[in-house]
Backbone:
DNA sequence: TTGTAAGCGTTATCAG
DNA sequence: CTGATAACGCTTACAA
């Protein structure tokens, strides 16, 4: 009888459709959980983020990444389940997850929670982190991109620059210790030292990667008496917020304040002024990661330890200029 | 023994932790699917969209809605699974879905596919549609919002206006027949007739709700010889695209072309010029819908047929002005 | 083609 | 507190 649902071809079409018809008329639907149990796969893959989902969705970067992820997941017939820490514990959420594979986005370098999962034999690929050394990663050249971004600002003549980094998600210690944070910070720093300048630690502040977070960061810095001529933001979402904050402070961009972001999210072209930023292939990154994961899930022959790095490049638009 | 995992309180702490320890050392993890089967709930709820997920994520509106949805889902300990048509069939995707409840976003008025699901007894709440008359809905005043948007344009003196509506997702017939489409269209129309004007059907074009879609719509209209002085878009994503398209056509906004959107997505303030649009409480809508669904899932006492309508309002910013 | 029974990995129940 | 046993609702192999 279950042939009707699963191998309709092994049955005479007449019988099969008759069964299906009766089933439909009785309102019968095979219990998907019981099905999973015997079939030993769920046809869904989990997208893991260390932040809350609400925080993740607040950032357009995550949306665009999901776009790429969803694109290839859908064409392969996989559904997407989003997994975020529940009541602070990613492990707990992971334990309930019924997925055939895991895509981990921007995992902190020290994340004991996920080890258990990996050891359970579920294929995993990382995006924007190499926290798990024995799982493959899809990265972009964060350090290089960050370098070119700070270099651009410095070469414009700015000397008092505020660096706004991405604040770690709730259960993690503050400081740029996860995902793209360390690499980008290193890039910024190198740009300074390359020019014989000191990278001013006191001018580094944290913000949650959202418009609100960026706006708050600038207004607080301002309130604290800082008067930078430029701000280098670790994400476009933050940069947009800084832009909004600058506006409410009565600052003109870039005449009074230059702003540079990171990601080159689709809205970056449309802001007033258009945002100078570092482009990374967000959607393509999501697609590549998902494709790799699907290969792993299907036991296709791929290097299970590969670390693939995609290029970044500076995009100069209107939000940066010489200091006042 | 499973007490250790599920009711640790019914066991002496010593025993419980001993069990957990041994389990961990053996790399044991309770099989989540088997667990679901006996516990008869999955602790996850499904977000259903009639479009492909990639399309949905391309629209910031969906991201902001998801933000609200995720916020309350997370605090209640529920995970989110996104369900989109797989190989054209929403039914197929729905059949595999292991969820305790369903949140349907913008379902077309005629959507036989979902009937089966509802009859399977899974709680369902609709957002932006009343396709299923015996399920509750969370709506916004689409007609009123649309009315005020077209009225604003008309009262500015525009007479040649292009209306860009949301194109239905792949398997559906073209025409504004699903989700918010009909209501908003009716609002536009009423604004015209109220002013003794004819609502020009020939000046209605469709676009996928994304920046690309909007840009394409304008450039194609232009190529077809249309020279509107204003465009009324059914979504901010489309309006942003129209803005980009206008720019590439060398048109100044609003001097040469006025543009008005719908949604008041977070980026609307930051564009150049800031977008005039219709505000709707996107995040709050997601929160309300999820809260209602959770009530239903928990058999809490709520009106299972309620239709709640949240307000919309015109926000005049810089992208609209008098005709040239 | 149809029917029967074993197994999937848990949780829950009921004696010991 | 421990140990055995019956569900949970399906798929699949095997027998009829």
Residues:
């Amino acid at each position: 009888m279950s042939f009707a649902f699963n191998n309709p071809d092994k049955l005479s079409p007449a019988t099969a459709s008759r069964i299906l018809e009766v089933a439909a008329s009785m309102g019968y639907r095979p219990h998907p959980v019981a099905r999973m149990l015997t079939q030993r796969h769920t046809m869904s893959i989990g997208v893991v983020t260390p932040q809350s989902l609400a925080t993740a969705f607040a950032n357009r970067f995550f949306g665009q990444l999901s776009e790429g992820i969803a694109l290839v997941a859908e064409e392969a017939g996989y559904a997407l389940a989003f997994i975020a820490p529940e009541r602070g514990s990613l492990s707990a959420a992971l334990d309930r997850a019924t997925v055939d594979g895991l895509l981990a986005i921007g995992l902190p370098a020290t994340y004991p929670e996920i080890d258990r999962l990996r050891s359970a034999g579920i294929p995993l690929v990382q995006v924007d982190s190499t926290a798990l050394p024995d799982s493959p990663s899809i990265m972009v050249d964060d350090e290089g991109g960050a370098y070119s971004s700070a270099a651009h600002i410095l070469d414009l003549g700015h000397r008092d620059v505020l660096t706004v980094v991405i604040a770690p998600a709730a259960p993690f210690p503050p400081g740029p210790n996860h995902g793209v944070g360390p690499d980008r910070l290193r890039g910024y720093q190198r740009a300074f030292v390359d020019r014989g300048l000191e990278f001013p630690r006191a001018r580094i502040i944290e913000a949650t990667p959202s418009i609100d977070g960026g706006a708050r960061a600038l207004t607080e810095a301002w309130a604290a008496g800082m008067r930078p001529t430029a701000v280098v933001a670790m994400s476009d979402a933050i940069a947009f917020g800084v832009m909004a904050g600058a506006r409410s402070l009565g600052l003109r961009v870039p005449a009074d304040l230059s702003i540079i972001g990171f990601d080159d999210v689709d809205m970056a072209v449309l802001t007033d002024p258009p945002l100078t930023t570092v482009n990374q292939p967000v959607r393509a990154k999501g697609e590549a990661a998902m494709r790799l994961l699907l290969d792993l899930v299907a036991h296709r022959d791929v290097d299970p330890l590969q670390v693939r790095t995609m290029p970044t490049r500076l995009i100069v638009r209107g939000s940066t200029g010489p200091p006042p």
